[in-house]
Every structure is written in structure tokens, then in C-alpha cells.
From TrEMBL:
Alphabetized PANTHER family for the sequence: MYOSIN LIGHT CHAIN KINASE, SMOOTH MUSCLE, SERINE/THREONINE-PROTEIN KINASE 17
Biological processes annotated in GO: intracellular signal transduction; positive regulation of apoptotic process
Name this polypeptide is given: Myosin light chain kinase
GO molecular function, one term: ATP binding
Pfam families according to UniProt: fn3, Pkinase
InterPro entries: FN3_dom, FN3_sf, Ig-like_dom_sf, Ig-like_fold, Kinase-like_dom_sf, Prot_kinase_dom, Protein_kinase_ATP_BS, Ser/Thr_kinase_AS
Origin superkingdom: Eukaryota
Domain Fibronectin type-III, residue spans: 48-145
Family designation: Belongs to the protein kinase superfamily. CAMK Ser/Thr protein kinase family.
Domain Protein kinase, chain residue ranges per copy: 167-420
Keywords on record: ATP-binding, Immunoglobulin domain, Kinase, Nucleotide-binding, Serine/threonine-protein kinase, Transferase
């Protein structure tokens, strides 16, 4: 449509196919000019991608969870409408239109033993989607489950009876560095539990197992796995734990039936912080917070618990230094063999949060040596692609925990952080599903690495008093489950200062030393170069660089 003063183009009933880049070209006898514009078409969202899944079922309430729409219509989803119908009726009734997350607790209009189906619609600023697939038929419980406070047990280790006197031992659930875990049932009550069978091969191994039971008696909290009983015999110590059936949290997240968003991640982190807040109030450090130790209470809900306090310690006036940890999650002070504190756990919580939101590990290097070097320098960044849909509050929350100096948030401070507060049910915020591809890749990589890890036992090591590292080791043994040599062994050998094979070492140990020595023989290279620096007159200039190479390096700094 044109006139002497203007030209215009109208597209009636625009549809997604009309969006894209448009170019306008104006010509006359002297030449032409052109201009590009982008046309975006927004619509109501697609229906939620999954049917509602039910958990926490009682006689008069239940919790629904679902997956958000695969396409939000080009503008953020503002909320969800939950609808219900009785099994014998065809009429759908609105339960709520104010749900802003992908889960909702239905508290009204449900009768004991009643049968219902549920469905969900998503809406944005344009309109309301078609309904999701309806849920399976849900039958309410006969009577309401009372919200009684949990009963905790102060365990007294049984030195008279054996565990099989009171429990039936069933299939193996897992294997750890301490021993094995089995599913068990109590012979009288039929209650299901998990039994951790510790090898009591030495007095030191027994003391470690008994120490864990002692610590667990101080850790009675809903977000912490509970110890139910303990047995001490000549050959083994058995720690009877509550059975937690939901599996690892990170495995739950990648399930197609569960939505992964920033608000749901915040709620998971809130639960972790609540559990660790109680642990820290007892002046206990966990020292092994990682994805495998955060598990879901059941297979349908979103409640979690923290497990495995095998490396935990109670702090006192005496400085505590430790020599264990998982490279991706360990704090810088552990690597530097400096005293640990409650803030050591906060670093690991920051790493967990980073991975939960992005699917990537902030300090993951090409090998364990590189990973530990990045942790030591606290070098990480927020990848633009991975954090594209993550709020600034979330990134600030992570940054407040991943500090090299121990000025990290405490659990109490973290729970009061704006990111935690911003996702309370009282505040309405649009949500967007996070991509699960990277977190699936992260879990697959950890699972693969778990099959090739080596355990290194160190004996007769002398600690360097001023530097907190091992100067020399006179004997060590590598226990391996695979012929492939992992980078962790090479890095540990580097820390141990062992550069040449000694008599009695295994073939793999010799190969590890020779490989490491070959790496060190190459020419030096900068891992971190000098950086341009501007200082005020009279200030102290500190120029720092990191170099990889043989120990007899010499450096020269020229000024020109």
C-alpha cells in the first residue's frame, strides 16, 4: 500500500511462518537504499509436555508435578491452570489458575478413596494452551497420613547380636570404599532399610565406622539420612540406615517426567542448605558433598536427603587438615592442606548449584591435575550459553560461595540470599525449562569415570611443615579395577614427588611414573601468563605467573 507520503505492508492473520527478517529496498534513478527489520510472531504456549504425576498421596491431598511446554509461544510462560474431574464424570473443574511452578499441592475437594484425573494448561501474555494429557486415574488413600514428627534413634552399637539375628539381608545396592551396601528387612516389623557393611580389617577401620555412627547420633534432621542401628562383631561393623528409594537427585532431574527449571533448582538447593545448616550447628563438616550424596526421598516427589557421612568430622579447637575429596567438588584449602572449616562445605554447595543450573562443572579440566589447579586458583566463569536463561541472582549466589578466601556465605546467610527469597511461593515469576542435555552428558561422564578410578593408599609419607604437601613417599600401592591409567594417579604421583620407579612397585605404577616423567621433561609452558597491571604510586607490585615444567626451572624478568 503506497501513497505520495508513505508506503506500508500489512500481513493479515500473522502466523509463525511469517516471522523472520524482512528487507525493504527503495530505488530511484540515482540509486537505492535498503533496510532490514525482524518480525517476531508470539502465540499462546504449547500444552505441558507431560501428563501430571502424583506424589505425597493422602486421603485428602496430593502433589502434582509435570513438564512445562516444549514451546512457550515466543514469550515467557506466566503460570499454569490445574483442572480435575472425577473418574465417573466428563466435566473438568478448575483447581487453581495461580500456579507459577511445575508442581502444585491439591488440598481441597478431594474425598477419601475418591477417584480423580488431573490435567494442566500453560498460559502466557497471549493466551492459554490446550490441556496436557490427563493423568492416570488416582485413588485417594483411606485415611489421612498424620504429619507426626519423625522418630529419631540414638544408636547404641550392639556388640552381642549379629545383624542377621534381627534383619534379613537381600540384594546388594552398591559398593563403596568402606565395603558394601545391602537392602535389608527387619524380621519383626518388615521395615525396609539399608545396611552398610564395613570391613573391620583393622582397628583403624573399626574406629572410622564407629565414628560415623557416633556422628550420626548428632544429626537428627528431616533432610539427613538417619542411622537406625549398629552392630559390631570381630569381622565387620554394620550400620543400619533408613532406606531412601528415590535415587540420586541429578538422575531424577534428567527424567522426562520431571521439570528442570531455575525455581525447582532453587528449592533443591534450599533443602540442601537446610540440612547442612543443622549439620553445621553441630560443628560438623561433611567434606564429601557431591551429586551422588544428594538423593530423593521417593520416586515421585521432590524432597531430598543428604547421605554418606563417612568422611565427616566434628571440629574442635585443634586445626583439622584432610587429604581426601573429589577433585571437582573439593575446596582450595583441602588441596593446599590447610585447616578446613564449615565454609569448606559451602564451596562444594556452590559447585553443586553451578552444575544443577548449567549441567557443567565449573572447574572441570582435561584431567584431575588440571581440575585441581583450577580449583586452587578458584578459576571459573559463567559460560554465556549455559547461563543464558539463568538469573543474575543465581549467579551472584554461586559467586558468594565459590570464593578462594574463606569469606563464603554460611548456610543461614545463603538461605537469606535474594536468589533463595526470589523463588518463594509468594512471589510470582515466569519460569522456563532448562536444557537437560548437558547435565545428561555430565552424569554419563561421571558414570564412565567411576569405572576407571584408582584408589591410592599412602604409607609412611612425610608432611612438609611449611607448605602442606607431601615431600616424599617411600611406599604406595595402586588398587585398580581397569588397565587404563587415570589422570588422578598421575597427579597424585606428582604431588608425592615420586619421579622414578622404585623396587617392588607394580607395572602400572612404573608406567605411571615414566609417563609423568616424560611429561615433565618437555619444555616449560605458561599455564597462566603475566597480566598487565596498573597501580597507584607507592603501591606494592606483585607479578604472578604459573608455569608447567621440570622442578629445576629458572625464571628471568626483564624491564624495558
Amino acid at each position: 500500500r503506497s501513497s505520495d507520503s508513505q508506503s506500508s505492508v500489512e500481513i493479515d492473520q500473522v502466523c509463525p511462518e511469517d516471522q523472520g527478517c524482512y528487507t525493504i529496498v527503495v530505488r530511484n534513478r540515482r540509486g537505492f537504499v535498503h533496510h532490514n527489520i525482524a518480525l517476531s510472531v508470539i502465540d499462546r504456549p504449547d500444552p505441558p509436555a507431560s501428563h501430571p504425576v502424583v506424589s505425597k498421596l493422602t486421603s485428602d491431598s496430593l502433589v502434582l508435578s509435570w513438564t512445562g511446554p516444549s514451546y512457550d509461544g515466543g514469550t515467557a510462560v506466566l503460570g499454569y491452570i490445574v483442572e480435575v474431574r472425577e473418574e465417573k464424570s466428563e466435566n473438568w473443574t478448575e483447581v487453581t489458575k495461580d500456579c507459577i511452578n511445575t508442581c502444585y499441592k491439591v488440598r481441597s475437594s478431594l474425598e477419601p478413596q475418591g477417584q480423580y484425573r488431573f490435567r494442566v494448561r500453560a498460559y502466557n501474555s497471549i493466551g492459554v494452551s490446550q490441556p496436557s494429557q490427563q493423568s492416570h486415574c488416582i485413588t485417594m488413600a483411606t485415611q489421612s497420613k498424620k504429619d507426626n514428627p519423625p522418630k529419631y534413634v540414638d544408636v547404641v552399637v550392639d556388640t552381642i547380636n549379629k545383624v542377621k539375628d534381627h534383619y534379613d539381608v537381600h540384594e546388594k545396592l552398591g559398593v563403596g570404599k568402606f565395603g558394601q551396601v545391602y537392602r535389608m528387612t527387619h524380621k519383626e516389623t518388615g521395615d525396609i532399610c539399608a545396611g552398610k557393611f564395613y570391613r573391620a580389617s583393622s582397628s583403624k577401620a573399626k574406629a572410622a565406622a564407629l565414628k560415623e555412627i557416633e556422628l550420626m547420633n548428632c544429626l537428627h534432621h528431616p533432610k539427613l539420612a538417619q542411622c537406625l542401628a549398629g552392630y559390631n562383631t570381630r569381622s565387620e561393623i554394620v550400620m543400619v540406615m533408613e532406606y531412601i528409594a528415590g535415587g540420586e537427585l541429578f538422575t531424577r532431574i534428567i527424567d522426562d517426567n520431571f521439570e528442570h527449571t531455575e525455581p525447582t533448582s532453587a528449592r533443591y538447593m534450599q533443602q540442601i542448605l537446610e540440612g547442612m545448616q543443622y549439620v553445621h550447628k553441630q560443628n560438623i563438616v561433611h567434606l564429601d558433598l557431591k551429586p551422588e550424596n544428594i538423593v530423593c526421598v521417593d520416586t515421585t516427589g521432590t524432597s531430598i536427603k543428604i547421605i554418606d557421612f563417612g568422611l565427616a568430622s566434628k571440629l574442635d579447637d585443634k586445626p583439622l587438615m584432610v587429604m581426601h575429596g573429589t577433585p571437582e567438588f573439593v575446596a582450595p584449602e583441602v588441596i593446599g592442606f590447610e585447616p578446613v572449616s564449615l565454609e569448606t562445605d559451602m564451596w562444594s554447595i556452590g559447585v553443586l548449584c553451578y552444575i544443577l543450573l548449567s549441567g557443567e562443572s565449573p572447574f572441570q579440566g582435561n584431567n584431575d591435575a588440571e581440575t585441581l589447579a583450577l580449583v586452587t586458583e578458584a578459576q571459573y566463569e559463567f559460560d554465556e550459553e549455559s547461563f543464558e536463561d539463568i538469573s543474575d541472582e543465581a549467579k551472584d549466589f554461586i559467586s558468594s560461595l565459590l570464593k578462594k578466601t574463606k569469606k563464603r556465605l554460611s548456610c543461614t546467610e545463603a538461605l537469606s540470599h535474594p536468589w533463595m527469597v526470589s523463588f518463594t511461593p509468594l512471589l510470582r515469576r515466569p519460569t522456563k525449562s532448562l536444557d537437560k542435555t548437558k547435565i545428561r552428558r555430565f552424569l554419563a561422564k561421571r558414570k564412565w569415570q567411576g569405572k576407571t578410578d584408582k584408589a591410592v593408599h599412602i604409607h609412611n609419607g612425610n608432611l612438609s611443615p611449611g607448605h602442606g604437601c607431601i615431600r616424599r613417599v617411600t611406599q604406595f600401592q595402586i588398587v585398580t579395577s581397569s588397565s587404563a591409567l587415570c589422570d588422578q594417579v598421575l597427579f597424585l604421583l606428582l604431588l608425592l614427588g615420586a619421579s622414578h620407579p622404585e623396587p617392588g612397585w607394580s607395572q602400572e605404577a612404573e608406567e605411571a611414573i615414566q609417563s609423568l616423567d616424560k611429561q615433565l621433561q618437555c619444555e616449560p609452558r605458561f599455564r597462566q601468563a603475566l597480566r598487565d597491571t596498573t597501580l597507584a604510586k607507592g603501591a606494592t607490585a606483585q607479578l604472578t605467573c604459573l608455569v608447567n615444567g621440570k622442578h629445576d626451572l629458572t625464571a628471568q624478568l626483564d624491564h624495558y
